[in-house]
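Usage

Read records sequentially. Each one opens with the input sequence:
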Amino acid sequence: MAEVLVSVKKSFNKRLLEVWCEFDWGVDIETVTDEFILGKIDEIISSVKNNSVPDVSVLFKENVVVDMTESHVKERVMQFFARIREFIEEQGWQEFFTGKDGLRLKCKLLVESLQPRGLREEVATTVKYQARSAKEDEKELFKVILAKAFEQDRDFQRRKRSRTKDQSERKKNDTNTHGGDSLQHRS
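and closes with the structure output:
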């Protein structure tokens, strides 16, 4: 079966394309090519909506969160990084995070968006004093976050086992203490 290709130029509303060409792009509609139009569409998509700059930090914290219901630590961190990329793309903010300054901003926002707070604080301290390269290197930051998330999960599991052990010992002691008394009262 033969493939049918439709010209981008011909698929546009002619009046709208005329206005874009004349007023915004400064080109003659007769000479405009599909490649040119596609390039302009890409520019529009990657630019900030109506040239207004939103509070990126607040939007990150609201929309990019760690899924604490995911029990597998590495998967949880992977999903966090995937969500960040997805959110940046959805918002058309790719240009905010290019170059050294952009990567530094992205890494800062990643740390600020981390949950729970203890993990965020631990990662921030590690990045500040021990793993400074993670301030502007997303891969290094991933390693730090993953290592700290594993540490926190191990601590959590250890405390959980300790609580369970303490509770079962208390129940055992309560049963021995109160169980013996109740048997004497029944006689």
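Summary fields computed downstream for this record:
- The helical segments are 8-11, 14-25, 34-46, 56-63, 73-91, 99-113, 117-129, 138-186.
- The longest helix spans residues 138-186.
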